[in-house]
């Protein structure tokens, strides 16, 4: 088959769009939050949505995710992990669009989202505050949340959301917020301390009305040393 004939045969397969959608989780000290935009463009004008847009012809998928997140929310230097591709035929009302979802977990106190491009608003919202979302973004969000909860249980990524020095109560509150569950205080502390990945400091909280609690730091060197020996972090 000639190149021309092969090109004609395959032409229909090059007539649909590729997009990316970014699920950015943050923690405000009490609740797990999601970064959402309000769409200022059709389709789904005025709806809440995940930051997402079409991939340009001249960019790689990872580059597109970084660009689109910045274009719509102003966020830079956010590590995005590829989650899953969503390809339902009817997911976009204007035509066939396959989207690749990325997700991230960040300390939201270090980022100040601002709307840009066609995004009218860019803000943090808790899961309970979300309204009806555009496209299949609820499904994408739930898939990302499931992945995040699995990852948090098995890897010490949650420490990135806390101050460098934190109390055990703050650590427990973080895991309860992300996993949407309640832990017994004594059992949680016993398990966390038994992992030997926290460094107890000769410091306590300041300017608190209750009895100041002891402060701790995560010890990444200790964790990586233990991991090489087969240690499994599991909450």
Please give the structural blueprint.
Blueprint: H1 3-10, E1 17-27, E2 32-39, E3 48-49, E4 52-54, H2 61-73, E5 81-86, E6 97-106, E7 119-126, H3 137-154, H4 168-179, H5 185-194, E8 198-204, E9 214-218, H6 220-228
Parallel strand pairs: 1-6
Antiparallel strand pairs: 1-2, 1-4, 2-3, 2-7, 5-6, 8-9
Question: What does this 3D model show about the protein?
Answer:
The protein has 235 residues and is α+β, with helices and mostly antiparallel strands. The chain has two domains: 138 residues, Nucleoside Triphosphate Pyrophosphohydrolase; 64 residues, Arc Repressor Mutant, subunit A (Orthogonal Bundle), CATH 1.10.10.10. Helix content is 30%, strand content 26%. The protein has six helices and nine strands. Strands 1, 2, 3, 4, 5, 6 and 7 form a seven-stranded mixed beta sheet that branches. Strands 8-9 form a two-stranded antiparallel ribbon. A hairpin with a 4-residue loop joins strand 1 and strand 2. The longest helix is centred in the middle third of the chain and has 18 residues. The termini are far apart. The mean pLDDT is 91.
